[in-house]
Amino acid sequence: MSYITLNSQKLLHNYNFLNQIFEKNNIEWAVVAKLLCGNEKFLKCLLDVAKKEICDSRLTNLRHIKELSPKTQTVYIKPPAKRLAKSIVKYADVSFNTEIDTIKALSDEAVLQNKIHKIVIMLEMGELREGIMVKNLSNFYGEVLQLPNIEVVGIGTNLNCLNGILPDEKKLFKLNRFKEIIEESHHTKIPHISAGSSVTIPLIFENKIPEGINHFRVGESLFFGTDVYNDSTIGGMHQDIFRLTAEIIEIVEKPMIPAGDAGTNLTGETPMHDETNRGKTSVRAIVDLGILDVDPKQIVPLSAGIEIIGASSDMMILDLSDNIYNFQVGDTIDFSMNYMAVLRAMNSEYVDKVVDYKTNAKQLKILAHTH
Fold first, then answer.
1. If DSSP codes are grouped into helix, strand and coil, which group holds residue 287?
2. pLDDT at 261 over 70
3. Whether residues 126 and 247 fall in one domain
4. Are 206 and 253 within one domain?
């Protein structure tokens, strides 16, 4: 069997690490949980650590969060599909919006459900993903103000996810100024500017976050300890909260070069081989994991001297060289994973999910409230 393990203590450590940074800088933040793909075991573990505000881009995941923790504020962090307005209002306390017709649909549903639905208006700041053009903001905001049961709790922006545009002090200052202009012209108050994400965290360390930027949405840095801005890691944070484990189902000494005429493989590629290895052999293992579950290029064996040769839909081939670890059929091999590897494995129903509780849930809660 193959399975992915979440280390609960390391998750708690990373959460407290970030929470101290945000508290010190008077910044509120929410956990982006879409990486967990709504898995109940992992969501329970996360909610033991952080339950104030959880973001996701999948409505079914927000529904699971509401079922597990009704008091947690849920945030839908992409422009909602208009047809989903009823469910958005039901399961998301807040949604990020860019289309007035969709907000009107949310307003109608909020009236029917006797709720106040909160929204964040997303602005285009150069990334060219979601966001209204700044020149339209005043009129857009004015229209939204007329809608019943809708409360604008912030403006926000998204950077780095599509075209890799990095946040900087100038962009964030402009965003704060846009908020001030809207507040002055419409005689209102907008409590939050949700402009921070994992990629923005390094700007905090450099004191380049303008006053007024007071809300972050963080997933990758929490789960991987990554400095997304500089493509490195944040000192003091764990990078190995997740671990992938696969069982050896075959282990045989085989030639290093295949025999016969080669066409394309399952993925449409013709693998290249080092001809200097012709006539040589090595110990090869097959593990019960394939490209249906994970991209082999996004995982790394934790034991030195093991090389991933390739994979088919449900099997992965490893070169164990001389098998210095004396692996046998039934043994398991562990792999580190990057963000996309975890996301794909979490989305596979064929990979089991395991929580590594070094501390029980009650102790986790105590620790979370004392940091």
1. strand
2. no
3. no
4. no
Closest CA to 93 of 149, 18, 159, 175: 149
Residues whose CB falls within 8 Å of the CB of residue 206, separated by 6 or more in sequence, listed in order: none
Cα angle 356, 345, 5 (rounded to 5 degrees) comes to: 10
Regarding pTM above 0.85, the answer is yes
Looking at the fold, whether 103 and 188 belong to one and the same domain comes out as: yes
pLDDT-derived band of residue 255, with 50, 70 and 90 as boundaries?
confident
Tokens representing 34 are 């879409």
Q: Could you tell me if 51 and 121 lie in one domain?
A: yes
Same domain, 160 and 304: no
Which residues, in sequence order, are CB contacts of 259 under 8 Å at separation 6+? Answer: none
Q: Please count the structural domains in the chain.
A: 2
Q: Are 92 and 62 in contact (CB under 8 A)?
A: yes
For residues 79 and 193, state if they share a domain. Answer: yes
Q: How many residues does the chain have?
A: 371
pLDDT tier at 362, thresholds 50, 70, 90:
very low
Instruction: Please report the sign of the dihedral spanned by the C-alpha atoms of residue 84, residue 86, residue 88, residue 94.
Output: positive
Helical residues (DSSP H) of the chain, grouped into ranges = 8-24, 40-49, 59-68, 85-91, 100-112, 137-145, 169-186, 201-205, 220-224, 339-346, 361-369
Full residue range of the structural domain in which residue 313 is found: 242-337
Could you read off the pLDDT of 107-158 as tens digits, one per residue? 999 999 999 999 999 999 999 999 999 999 999 999 999 999 999 999 999 9
Asked if residue 262 and residue 229 are part of one domain, the reply reads no
> Which sequence positions are flagged as catalytic?
34
User: Which residue carries 């593990």 as its tokens?
Assistant: 287
* Best CA proximity match to 318, nearest among 308, 332, 305: 308
Torsion of CA 293, 299, 304, 308, to 10 degrees: 60
Closest CA to 105 of 124, 126, 119: 119
